[in-house]
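The passage that follows is intended for readers who have already worked through the single-chain material. We present the inputs for a multi-component assembly, then the predicted structure in tokenized form, and finally a short commentary. You are encouraged to pause after the input and sketch how you expect the pieces to fit together before reading on.
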Amino acid sequence: MPAPIRLRELIRTIRTARTQAEEREMIQKECAAIRSSFREEDNTYRCRNVAKLLYMHMLGYPAHFGQLECLKLIASQKFTDKRIGYLGAMLLLDERQDVHLLMTNCIKNDLNHSTQYVQGLALCTLGCMGSSEMCRDLAGEVEKLLKTSNSYLRKKAALCAVHVIRKVPELMEMFLPATKNLLSEKNHGVLHTSVVLLTEMCERSPDMLSHFRKLVPQLVRILKNLIMSGYSPEHDVSGISDPFLQVRILRLLRILGKGDDDSSEAMNDILAQVATNTETSKNVGNAILYETVLTIMDIKSESGLRVLAINILGRFLLNNDKNIRYVALTSLLKTVQTDHNAVQRHRSTIVDCLKDLDVSIKRRAMELSFALVNGNNIRGMMKELLYFLDSCDPDFKADCASGIFLAAEKYAPSKRWHIDTIMRVLTTAGSYVRDDSVPNLIQLITNSVEMHAYTVQRLYKALLDDISQQPLVQVASWCIGEYGDLLVSGQCEEEEPIQVSEDEVLDVLEGLLVSNLSTPVTRGYSLTAIMKLSTRFSSLNRIKKVVSIYGSSIDVELQQRAVEYNALFKKYDHMRPALLERMPIMEKTIFSGDGIFTVCLWSVFPVLQANDLLDLLGGNDVVPIIQTTVPTKPASAGGELLDLLGDLSLTVIPPMTAYNKNGLIIEFTFERSNPNPNIAVITIHATNSTEADMTEFVFQAAVPKVCSFPSCILINLLFMSWCIGT
Amino acid sequence: MIKAILIFNNHGKPRLSKFYEHYTEDTEQQIIRETFHLVSKRDENVCNFLEGGLLIGGSENKLIYRHYATLYFVFCVDSSESELGILDLIQVFVETLDKCFENVCELDLIFHMDKVHNILAEMVMGGMVLETNMSEIITQAEAHNKMEKSEAGIAGAPARAVSAVKNMNLPEMPKNINIGDISIKVPNLPSFK
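Having made your guess, compare it with the prediction:
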């Protein structure tokens, strides 16, 4: 059998392939040759074959049949073989294959080899892919090597120890004695890896952390030497002496000084020195400064130092280098919670970053801007943010819109400003707002009673321009349905009232129903709006016509609504005004017993189906909606509710506990009303069994739509019985 | 911790891939492709930091990359590493390769993939930075190579001959020989390499 080709030849051949198929063919041929060579147990060329296999693995072709061969190479005596063998093991093997355990013995022998390079190879492989079993077996060897005086091996042993600790945290104590004099090494490589080992140990165990606190003076001394020492060619990177080691030490100091006064005290001087003396013209200097700033912010430093740190970050923001700006924005984001005022000073620079071309910087600047918004700067910030919303990429729009809504809700200076802002968001980024913003907005509009006319006018004008953005259309049609009378009567105080006739309004709403741009939900909204206008407008015939047309619509939801509204016109006309009255003010509350649960908003239409009622009363964790169910007189059709309640005759329904959690108990009791046996009365008892007061308890009622004959639901809110008796 | 080190060219062909966390072979190739897509879209004058792709850990991990001529050097790290520090590390890595290969270019990486792995193993071990001193790394790598060569036997003879000639100190050919006031110009002979 001719000698297998060299790796170089193989690479040359593969590069001549012009298509993927050709390449695959060549590789398959070579794989077959390699496989037969492996079968022949050829020792001389095994190394070459495995090297070729690794190349093919990198290109993405399967190479698992070489795993055992790697093990054979590791066991060989030649350095060349061992090298490729260990490389193959690192690339092809991992702890999920059982084969890797066979390596343990080889590694053990090699850890005690006479040549330091072989020992180094073994440490490297163990540190890269050692499994927990292997680590447990070989931890003793690693610990021995950690104490050796050979710096080449010592640094590798330190990192290997880190890997062992990560895999088997219980072995951490074993390495403790070896760390005693790690920091007195002169060799920077060993120092560097020792600091990594100490960092890992401190991060994992608070006991170790307190043990190593006594090393702070030593670390400070090392850092001082690094800064003060003159130029040393071997560790110099762009004029600074071993910046990697400086950064590592700063990070370890951060961990050691966090929450501890004495250590922070010891570090103050050196941190101030590093912060002021480091040259910032190159990236290295900035890397060290960045690490210093993070350390200053984390430990208990004195206020002068903190101000210095934030100023450094401010300087970073003005730097031309994008990387520096990115890094500055990231760290400002971390510190804005604790040092809010200091960061405010740089607000204008941050807002300028919104206009940067770089996507990563824009995202960071946006998050930071939202964190900086407060009652004083809301107007200015909002202007910038709205401008940003107009011009940003679609990926940002959803987050930006939600952020604007939240900020506006918290800090709105006036109701009119709030509504204007929301309108602006809806018109510019309307299709990107989240689904739950529609009910939130509706609630907001309902609550600002004096702005109803203004709101509905603006929404109407927006609708005339553009009906493609669904959230905007939904809110607008809801408002027109509610306040259409204000619109037509031209009562607006805030701005110039427009002249709109009833027919025009109905034109617009009908346009929504037929447009292809409207989703089914939007159509539902507009049909309901038209229906509500029947009590507010005088042109009943037109409305009746529209409603009856949709009684035969293909969309089941629309059809059901239309049929029910039709029934309202025909048989239950006397109930219509009461049913379609203006919505009362809805409150959104958050109250906490032991936990926090929010009482959700709802809109009358659409509303939950009957099955959902049961789910809610079944008692999962968030069960806020308290509903009244009305058992009407038994009839043949539409008896779903009755099925739920079981008994058709409705003589006695036992009281049920609807909700019992966190000290709040809610019970329903059912009884027939005496004068009119067709009416059932449901009483809700809510009791607070905790010692604390429960405030802002709000009652909301939702009308189930499921009943096909609308029943009159009169809700008498007897607040009296609630206030007493906590 | 460094999760992965990838080197690929402007067309997405991998030149080196080292993962410090375990993924299956398919996932590794997908990660390489995904990273290439993310990195190649970037403009020249934007910052060198990116959020990691979905396959490699999403927004907890960052991709720190540098573009040199035809190659992208990408380090995927988690939040415990300093971003600016990793940028410097990439620079040190490339300079080391430059010293080891003498004006390194993509072809060197292609044909000497194992050597590049060895150099990388001297710098980063188990996802952590081992050594950052360039001369130290080069010394170790040279020592390894010497050990290999000493074992190579007959097959290594040409390589040994080449390195022997390189190490030979050939005297410089003087351009002008000046003996008193007679100056004889030496003809320009082609240099021996």
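Commentary: The longest helix of chain A spans residues 20-39. The longest strand of chain A covers residues 664-672. How closely did your sketch match?
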